[in-house]
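User: Reviewer 2 asked us to show a designed sequence for the structure in our supplementary figure. I'm pasting the structure tokens here. Could you produce the per-position amino acids so we can include them in the response letter?
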């Protein structure tokens, strides 16, 4: 029975995360706290069996992936443009509360129906799903038993919904913390199953190298 695991890692925290700003495609770097978080998640993966690492090209995800790979001899992150965060158009760089006040109607529509509404100049969910699906198909073609995908909150949610055949509305029911890890196992016999969601013990405890992921 062939099994494959996909580990989904959200990037470390940024200053814009702390300020509640829409980041989207804006190339915001990790904060010092985010780099520490990435070091903790790297420790968590240290010593795990062979795996490949795939990452968004945006700095906050790519740097997280590089730090994760630093404790894995011979492993380098493979960059996929399709793993970039959703584009929020005119909202990028703006604080959520400011948008809620200045664009209440558009923001309200998007909050009520994020799949039918699009931020001004932003990306539709159908476009987002299509590119994430393409990347997942490419990754699943390799023979490696484990693949680590380092990306963004929106991408992690879309990937989970796609891999588990969940309706898009299920995305917003998932909490995905900075530098958290989620895992889906794919079995030829049983199909996809969620192994764990939003594991962030390594962040909450400032590193827990000896603690394995749930099996």
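Assistant: Here is a per-position design you can include in the supplement:
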């Amino acid at each position: 029975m062939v099994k494959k695991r996909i580990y989904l890692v959200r990037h470390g925290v940024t200053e814009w995360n702390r300020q509640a700003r829409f980041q989207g495609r804006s190339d915001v770097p990790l904060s010092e706290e985010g780099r520490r978080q990435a070091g903790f998640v790297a420790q968590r993966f240290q010593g795990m069996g062979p795996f490949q690492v795939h990452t968004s090209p945006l700095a906050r995800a790519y740097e997280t992936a590089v730090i994760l790979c630093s404790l894995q001899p011979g492993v380098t992150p493979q960059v996929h443009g399709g793993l970039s965060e959703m584009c929020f158009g005119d909202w990028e760089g703006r604080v959520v509360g400011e948008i809620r006040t200045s664009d209440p109607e558009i923001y309200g529509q998007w909050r009520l129906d994020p799949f039918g509404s699009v931020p001004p100049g932003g990306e539709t969910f159908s476009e987002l799903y299509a590119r994430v699906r393409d990347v997942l198909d490419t990754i699943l073609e390799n023979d490696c038993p484990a693949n680590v995908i380092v990306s963004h909150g929106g991408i992690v949610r879309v990937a989970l919904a796609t891999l588990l055949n969940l309706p898009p509305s299920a995305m917003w029911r998932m909490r995905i913390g900075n530098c958290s890890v989620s895992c889906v196992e794919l079995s030829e016999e049983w199909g996809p199953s969620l192994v764990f969601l939003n594991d962030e013990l390594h962040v909450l405890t400032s590193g827990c190298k000896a603690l394995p992921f749930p099996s």
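For the response letter, you might also mention the following. Strands lie at 3-10, 52-55, 78-79, 146-151, 181-187, 191-199. Helices lie at 15-18, 32-45, 59-69, 96-102, 104-112, 125-140, 153-163, 201-204.
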